[in-house]
Amino acid sequence: MVKIIVGLGNPGDKYTHTKHNIGFDVLDVLADRLDISFKRDKTFISDIASTFVDGEKVLLVKPLTFMNDSGKAVKPILSYNGLTADDLMVVYDDLDMAVGKLRLRQKGSAGGHNGIKSISEQLNTQVFNRIKVGIGRPKHGMSVVNHVLGRFDKTDNEDAEIGIARAADAVQYFIETNNFNQTGNQFNG
């Protein structure tokens, strides 16, 4: 059995630690905890780190396709490993939740998130495990684009760090229990 954990973000230094890259940040924390490193995989257009947890292979995947085309990286990885959307967990940012807040869901619309829209379109389903990490709404008339592509300010930074750590905890809990409903009960809210 293989678990695919995908963190969404955009490649390149200018996007590092931006709000839209919170999925990458969660996977970086998890890779550090599991003492594994990401390697560039040109075939799957992703940075991938792999390990075994209780005899089960776990792949941490950061697509390098840019957010709007995330599904173009996710679908081939699932296909290559003989997996379906049931074996997938996606970690990403959510504008409509307070900074650092978590929401775990197994299905739903993209809610305006282009990375989720791309994955749903490529996999032809809206049913897959997700962890949304709140990044809050734009402040002081800032545009949505500038907000998601910006970094957290000092007032939100601590809540963001707590949310990233809790999301990594949730992924770890899911990997160990193999039970998404139980994970949701433990970490939602």
UniProtKB/TrEMBL annotation:
Subunit record text: Monomer.
Site (Discriminates between blocked and unblocked aminoacyl-tRNA): N10
Function: Hydrolyzes ribosome-free peptidyl-tRNAs (with 1 or more amino acids incorporated), which drop off the ribosome during protein synthesis, or as a result of ribosome stalling.
InterPro entries for the chain: Pept_tRNA_hydro (IPR001328), Pept_tRNA_hydro_CS (IPR018171), Pept_tRNA_hydro_sf (IPR036416)
Catalytic reactions of this protein: an N-acyl-L-alpha-aminoacyl-tRNA + H2O = an N-acyl-L-amino acid + a tRNA + H(+)
Subcellular location: Cytoplasm
Species of the source: Pseudolactococcus carnosus
Protein name per the record: Peptidyl-tRNA hydrolase
Domain of life: Bacteria
UniProtKB keywords: Cytoplasm, Hydrolase, RNA-binding, tRNA-binding
EC number: 3.1.1.29
GO molecular function: peptidyl-tRNA hydrolase activity
Gene name as annotated: pth
Similarity comment text for this entry: Belongs to the PTH family.
